[in-house]
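testing teh design pipeline on a random one, pls ignore if ur not involved
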């Protein structure tokens, strides 16, 4: 994905020829993500799966294996409003050990694994997962 905004906690991905993480995405959305995207005129029922199909979470819907918001040119059409999890990817939290790690589905996992991450990036991943779990107490 092309990275254009610089004033937020995120993980910068400079691999402009790649949009692998927007294919068959399983990205979960917090209520804040849903509200921000709906404020742009979208309806969660159109861009998310039915939560019954996603363990009670709101999860991005794929259309023909591509995120609902990915255009033909491989760009995110809601880039500035994209979910927090998309901003922080490929940092993810593994619930088994409660560690923030690089997702091994990322095409450039090796490169990302050699980088140093700021405390606020790691904390943002942990906070996001806590929020998602709090918002889905039945999980
Ligand atoms: S919302 Fe944007 S960044 Fe996130 S998976 Fe979809 S296309 Fe990719
Ligand atoms: S899969 Fe990894 S390298 Fe590819 S766009 Fe996503 S974060 Fe960047």
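output:
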């Amino acid at each position: 994905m092309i990275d254009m905004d610089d004033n937020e906690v995120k993980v910068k991905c400079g691999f402009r020829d790649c949009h692998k993480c927007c294919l068959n995405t399983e990205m979960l959305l917090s209520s804040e993500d849903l509200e921000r995207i709906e404020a742009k005129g979208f309806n969660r029922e159109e861009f998310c799966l039915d939560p019954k199909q996603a363990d009670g979470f709101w999860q991005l819907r794929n259309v023909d294996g591509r995120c609902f918001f990915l255009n033909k040119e491989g760009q995110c059409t809601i880039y500035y409003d994209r979910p927090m999890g998309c901003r922080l990817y490929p940092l993810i939290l593994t619930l088994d050990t409660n560690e923030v790690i690089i997702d091994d589905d990322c095409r450039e996992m090796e490169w990302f694994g050699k980088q140093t991450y700021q405390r606020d990036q790691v904390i943002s991943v942990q906070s996001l997962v806590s929020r998602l779990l709090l918002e889905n107490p039945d999980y």
